[in-house]
Write a structure and sequence with these properties.
With 203 residues, the protein is of the alpha/beta class. The protein is built from 4 helices and 10 strands, in the order ββββαααββββββα. The chain is 27% helix and 27% strand. Mean pLDDT is 81; it is low at 123-132 and 163-171.
Length: 203
């Protein structure tokens, strides 16, 4: 990858590189990923958009989100994220590890600014929600040496869970499906970016 233009260095020393598919990619300048053949993946951390719950609980709407609804929606929309990331890395030749090792890259995925447009919380008999897309989120992946904990790369990308051409009734199943599609695109692009770092000529 080539260094990006503009402010490129983070406080932790990582330098931004240009990416054709992701919003921001930062790598440690001396990072050598060629020795990593396995990845271990932390559980996904989830943060909703700061305005989401307030907007969903607007007095004009019949349904009101309770704490248990928020937890369920968080679980539903990210339930497959770790397996999707694992599949993308396995398809690129990595093995999945369950413990740190000298050839293990530790991946910490986060879903932030999660906004589910039409959560499926309407009681039976009430009007169901329709939406043109399931929502959006900012996806962040940190890659560290699994033994030392040294941060090697950070990927940040904001995406929409499928911009559909027509209104579609939103259900918990459809929301999960469309968010899974977002994670698959992101995971595939993330693997490609880390592969570019891995195969970068050493100077």
């Amino acid at each position: 990858p080539r260094p990006a233009t503009g402010p490129v260095t983070r406080d932790d020393g990582l330098v931004r590189v240009q990416s054709p598919h992701l919003d921001k990619v930062y790598v440690r300048p001396d990072a050598n990923l060629s020795g990593y053949r396995k990845v271990m993946i932390d559980p996904v951390q989830v943060e909703f958009s700061k305005d989401w719950l307030r907007n969903m609980n607007d007095p004009r709407y019949v349904a009101r989100l309770r704490a248990e609804d928020v937890r369920r929606i968080s679980d539903e929309t990210t339930s497959n994220a770790v397996s999707i990331i694992a599949d993308a890395f396995k398809a690129s030749g990595y093995e999945i590890a369950t413990a740190p090792g000298k050839d293990v890259l530790r991946l910490s995925p986060r879903v932030t600014e999660l906004y589910v447009n039409a959560p499926d919380v309407f009681p039976p008999g009430e009007t169901r929600a329709f939406a043109r897309d399931a929502g959006e989120a900012t996806l962040l992946l940190e890659a560290r040496d699994a033994v030392s904990g040294v941060l090697l790369a950070v990927i940040v990308d904001h995406g929409t869970a499928l911009d559909m051409l027509h209104l579609t009734r939103a259900t918990s199943v459809s929301n999960t499906f469309w968010f899974d599609g977002l994670y698959k695109r992101w995971a595939t692009s993330s693997v490609a970016e880390l592969g570019a770092v891995k195969n970068r000529p050493r100077t």
